[in-house]
Amino acid sequence: MRLQVEAISAGYGRVRVLHEISIAVDNQRVGLFGPNGHGKTTLLRTISGLIRPTAGRVIFDGKDITGRSPQSIVGEGLVHVPQGSTLLPRMTVLEALTLGAYSRRAWPRRRSTMEQVFSLFPRLAERRAQRCNTLSGGERQMAAIGAGLMGCPKLLMLDEPTLGLAPKLRAELAQAIHAIAATGVGLLVIDQDIDMLLGLCDRLYLIEQGRVALDVVDRSAIQHQDVLKRYFGSAA
Amino acid sequence: MKKDWTRIGRIASIVVVLAVAAVAPLVLTGGVAQNLAVLSILYAVVASNWDLTLGYAGIFNFAHVAFFGIGSYVAAIATLQFGVPVWLDLILAVVVVVAVGGLVSALALRLRGIYVALVTFALTQLCVALINSAKDITGGPVGLIGVPDLEIRGFELGSEPHAYFYAAEVLLILSTIAMRWLATSHFGLSLVALRDYEAYAVARGIPARRQRVLAIMASSIPTSLAGCLYAHYLIVASPDVFSFSLTTLLLSMVLVGGAGTIYGPIVAAIVLTVGTEGLHQLGNIRYMIVAVLIVLTLRFLPGGLWSLWTLVPAIRRRRATRVPSPLAEEASS
Amino acid sequence: MIENRPVHSRNTRRLSMLAAGAATVMACVATGAVPQAFAADKPEAAPTVASLTTCDTKDVKTIKVGILAPFSGGGMAADANDIGNAAMMAADELNAAGGICGKDARYKVTFEKGDTEGQRSDAVITAVRRLTADPDLHMIFAPYASTTNFEITLMAKAGMPYIISGGAEATKGIISKNPDGFPTVWSRVPDYGGYSTDLPPLINKNIEAGNLAVPAKTVYIIGSDDPYGTTIADGLKDSFTKAGWSVVGTETVPFQSVTDWRTQLAKIRELKPGMIVLTEWSPASDATFFNQFIEQPTDSLLFEQYAPVIPEFNEMTHNKANGVIFNMLGGAIDSRADTKDISKRFAEKFGAGGYFSVAGYTNMMVYALCINKGVDPADHLAMGKCIGSLDVDTPSGRLAFDPKTHLAMQGDDYMPTVFYQVVDNGGKAIVSPPAYAEQTFKQPYWMTTKPAAK
Amino acid sequence: MGAIIVSGLVSGALYALVAAGLSLIWGSLGVFNFAHGVLLMTGAYAAWWISSPDGLGLGLGIGIVGALAFMVVLGLVVYLLLVRPWIGKANAELAVIMTTIAGSIFLQNLILEIFGGRYKTIDQVVTGTVAIGGTTIQAQNLLVIILAPVLLIAMWLFLTRNRTGLAIRAVAQNQDAAQLFGIGVERIYIATFSVSAVLAGVAGILLGGLFNISPDMGTDPLLRAFVVVVFGGLGSLPGTILGAYAIGMIEAFSSYYIGIYWTPVVLFVVLIGVLVVRPTGLMGRPT
């Protein structure tokens, strides 16, 4: 068991967003989906330590990481690539990638990791001296994921990696994510693109109103249409 | 029933304030006490007016102290250089300062946040540079001395110990009524809305820049009058009214008293003026003590001295409906 | 005492000038002050601790003296502390000797400070109100308290004896309109007239005597915009012209705020004046001027107002300022034995003091003298009258006051304009008037023009 | 002409050192450190006290090293006491303006209380004079002209090559993202304050050698740095440096051609003009 989220409650100020939510990420690829504003991003932020949960536990690699600082969680190999892909607008791609290896675990290996990232995203190698805010949407997303990979993650959490991308780029990125998964890195992915999630993940959670509304363990057991209906139905 | 009590309480407090105002100059007869009273009341006017723009409207307007200084210079220049009769210089000061205030704020409010602070601060510095350069009119860096006493039918205010005390009190009371009225009016609420939810307020049709410019102009009226009284009382106008140390002093009054309360800065003006003087035997160490107190207040009493009131449960309940202080806001959440 | 006061009239002034010889004529000819008669009636000898404390009285009373000064005003705090420390040193000595012998009691003195916080007007008025309200406080000394000296009207209203040691122009401006309205206010510094007039004739005289030489009689004058700096600069423009010099350039600078003189020096280096006069007198600014001047000196005599008198000037100029000329009015005359003695004791207690150190000591001794003459310290009007009528020798020269302006009298026989030149190893030597001179002018080392061999 | 340019270069270099620290803190913490001028003054006093025979008398070398080490600690203290408690709170900008002003009042009076108001001088790092551009200047001036760009380049390299330096910039640009990279924001803030304080200390030591030391020596440089950061744009290091040299040159040319007397007015008119045309300074970004 890599990541175990047990009955987490969290929110912002007095507003509670997550209500005793539990999910598990084993040696597999897990997808989160559901309507906007129902707590998917908050869940990732809580796991990565940006938000302190008011109740519940987060266990990673057998260690209780509840309430620990983001940097110590990154140090454990749990890396979160946030939504909104302009990570560090006024830094060059090279600088942003280098910073991705900031944690003590990843820093000494940064050169070899960067080679791997560049082979995964050759576009980044071309754009290495360019500032992040001058990149195209897809390139920014690659830079963000690349920076996440620079942290040598055991488990990578991606928040809407394909948001706002054209279908062609989306497919390209999905391919890259597959390639990452193939190297044995665990994945926890939020995305609106159900097709991509269905193609990528072994397990899907539907998150609604801060709770797990549906836990899809066996993909074949559920109709694609049902998922879509449920998803859009509740969103409307 | 409850509302009646609130009303009775309000009337009672007005009566108490007026009684204290009437009696204080008769009780505090010593030269030291009277002088401190006049200074602290004038500072209270300046600080509480600053609170309208800084606390309620959330504008980093550092030119406020310049309004005070320009008021004092207008009084001195008008009476000494151009022989304008006393009292008329007060009207002149208001006109000049409101015009300057309007111009400065219209210019400065093109900017946002800290830039407003920096550019308004630069404008204050420009005042000093201009005063130093136009020596023939302003007296240059040494200022102008011999500003005549205010007089009413031949009665000179300076000849009677209580007179400036009462004059300052009248100004403070009128200014406070005006500021409270403004702050709780539709206009005041629009300022708060702009401060806290600008995008939303603008979307609802509140003209952001106009309201803010008006707020600055309104707050500059009593401030310029305080500057006038200050010049007549001290008999001098000198560039130290634009000094960083006076700006600091007044700013600490607003923040220590409690931004966004109007009353808080008044309390702090009196406490800080009297307090620093009370500690005079400590020499430089007293400034160190005041500095520490400022930091401690901001740390542990972010709503300022005025928020001590809210420790009384009955008032706290009533306060819930009021506009919160911007500093207190976060602490309570 | 009134009867003993010298007569003031234009006739006696002329007579005295005739008798005084060339040097005095030069010094007095255009001074604003009205020099009093001299020689015939000598001033009272300088009071000493012994002379003030020797009596049989046993009864002891304590009185307070206020020091009104910008104690928390950055660079000004040094002056404030100097005058305060020196007055306290004098008081300590008097107290230790049993107290000042007064009419029917011995008086011991304590002090109360009034901080004018960098000369901020509201702080001045607050400090004045507090000091004047103290029933045990009977005298206030100040180096300078405000930028305008407006506090002297408050002192007059409160009837408080006040001896101020700065801003003579401002004092004169306020008091001369109604001298009788200020019976308790006296300025221990004399009229600044001498600053404006005495320099050019003295330079001419020394050029003729072969002590100094300039490539041309041209002068560049930089003044500051405060009353002291402006008045002196304007006066010097006139008096240099009268003395046959041509003023090739002038500049006014804001007081105390110039940190870089290079652009100004660039103009000077183009004009190559025979003499440079700087009346912007703030020490930091003046030291910087010298440091940047000496980077690439022109062949010019250099006169700097006031600043070289402060003890750290030499350190600030890296001991290279020897040759710089300056003058002092109402300052302690360093060649006098009493000045040396006071300065030495002051330095032992507080470190080297500036202009206001001996001045502070003198203030206390002068005040004690009036008590010693039998004036009740609590009778402020009588005290004011006594001080105004004093004619006494002090470390700064003969002290008597002009009733029209309440300023100390200026002139070679009263408080002289004392000219100094900075000498090697950071000292300073009096070069004029001859009665006090320690050496003659020396040609500054940076000048290429040298005086003809004597 | 040479003299004017040299004058502009010396002022520009000193302004750049002072303003860079101010801009760095604004960039990463979003607060304005009004105690920066007093930090400069304190650095000069520390160097004087350690080096001067009137203090510890350990010589200039140890004085400089000791003072800079002291500045690291002082930067930490200022951050912990005057800035950290308000970070992330509503109105932090205003509160920190006030707390750092309070801090500067405290330090200035403390120094006055300990060392008195008399002027002090630090030995010059280099002595003698050198001739450049048809004008002769003290060698210390040349040191300032050379050292400031060297330090600023070193700082630039630190910010673009070094792990901590990169982290400082990351925190300035996106705090959340920086945390997710495993950057300890707290430590970076401390580093930022220490770097800024060291720059102020260097400026103080250089100023102390060129001019003199007094408790209010930091006021003028702070006000000037103020103008510089507004002129060049807050939070932008290249903008700040450009602004510093531009202000230095404007001052120098204005005081030669228009006169020292009107230079402050000219400066403020230029500044206000720039802000009206470009509200975020020459190279600044909107806040």
Identify the CATH architecture of the domain at 2-85 and 152-232 in chain A: 3-Layer(aba) Sandwich
**Main β sheet profile of chain A:** 6 strands, mixed
Q: What top-tier CATH class of the domain at 2-85 and 152-232 in chain A fits best?
A: Alpha Beta
SSE run of chain A: EEEHEEHEHHHHEHEHEEH
Secondary-structure-derived class of chain C: alpha/beta
Radius of gyration of chain A: 17 Å
Describe this protein's structure.
The complex is a heterotetramer of chains A (236), B (333), C (454) and D (287). With 236 residues, chain A is an alpha/beta fold. Chain A has helices spanning 40-47, 70-75, 93-100, 110-120, 122-126, 137-150, 167-182, 194-200, 224-235; strands spanning 3-12, 15-25, 29-33, 55-60, 63-64, 78-81, 155-159, 186-190, 203-208, 211-216. Chain A has a domain at 2-85 and 152-232: Rossmann fold (3-Layer(aba) Sandwich). Helices cover 37% and strands 25% of the residues of chain A. In chain A, a hairpin with a 2-residue loop joins β4 and β5. The mean pLDDT of chain A is 86. Chain B contains 15 helices and 4 strands. In chain B, the strands form 2 sheets. In chain B, strands 1-4 form a two-stranded antiparallel sheet. In chain B, strands 2-3 form a two-stranded antiparallel ribbon. In chain B, a hairpin with a 2-residue loop joins β2 (151-152) and β3. Chain C has helices at 10-20, 22-28, 49-53, 77-96, 121-133, 151-158, 168-175, 193-197, 199-208, 227-242, 262-271, 283-295, 313-316, 337-350, 355-372, 380-388; strands spanning 60-69, 100-101, 106-115, 137-142, 162-164, 185-190, 218-224, 246-253, 275-278, 301-304, 325-329, 391-394, 397-400, 407-408, 417-422, 428-432. Chain C has a 7-stranded mixed beta sheet with strand order 2-3-1-4-5-6-14. Chain C has a 4-stranded parallel beta sheet with strand order 8-7-9-10, with helices on one face. Chain C is globular. The termini of chain C are far apart. Chain D has one domain (16-217). The model of chain D has no long low-confidence stretch (mean pLDDT 89). Helix content of chain D is 72%, strand content 3%. Chain D is built from 11 helices and 2 strands; from the N terminus they run ααααββααααααα. In chain D, a hairpin with a 2-residue loop joins β1 (129-132) and β2. Chain D is globular.
Protein topology:
The complex is a heterotetramer of chains A (236), B (333), C (454) and D (287).
Chain B: H1 2-27, H2 31-56, H3 64-81, H4 88-108, H5 114-133, H6 135-138, E1 144-145, E2 151-152, E3 155-156, H7 163-184, H8 186-196, H9 198-203, H10 208-234, E4 236-237, H11 244-257, H12 263-278, H13 285-300, H14 313-319, H15 326-332
Antiparallel strand pairs in B: 1-4, 2-3
Helix pairs in contact in B: 2-7, 2-10, 2-11, 2-12, 3-4, 3-5, 3-10, 4-10, 7-8, 7-10, 8-10, 11-12
Chain C: H1 10-20, H2 22-28, H3 49-53, E1 60-69, H4 77-96, E2 100-101, E3 106-115, H5 121-133, E4 137-142, H6 151-158, E5 162-164, H7 168-175, E6 185-190, H8 193-197, H9 199-208, E7 218-224, H10 227-242, E8 246-253, H11 262-271, E9 275-278, H12 283-295, E10 301-304, H13 313-316, E11 325-329, H14 337-350, H15 355-372, H16 380-388, E12 391-394, E13 397-400, E14 407-408, E15 417-422, E16 428-432
Parallel strand pairs in C: 1-3, 1-4, 4-5, 5-6, 6-14, 7-8, 7-9, 9-10
Antiparallel strand pairs in C: 2-3, 11-15, 12-13, 15-16
Chain D: H1 2-29, H2 36-51, H3 60-83, H4 92-115, E1 129-132, E2 135-138, H5 139-161, H6 163-173, H7 175-180, H8 185-210, H9 219-232, H10 237-257, H11 263-277
Antiparallel strand pairs in D: 1-2
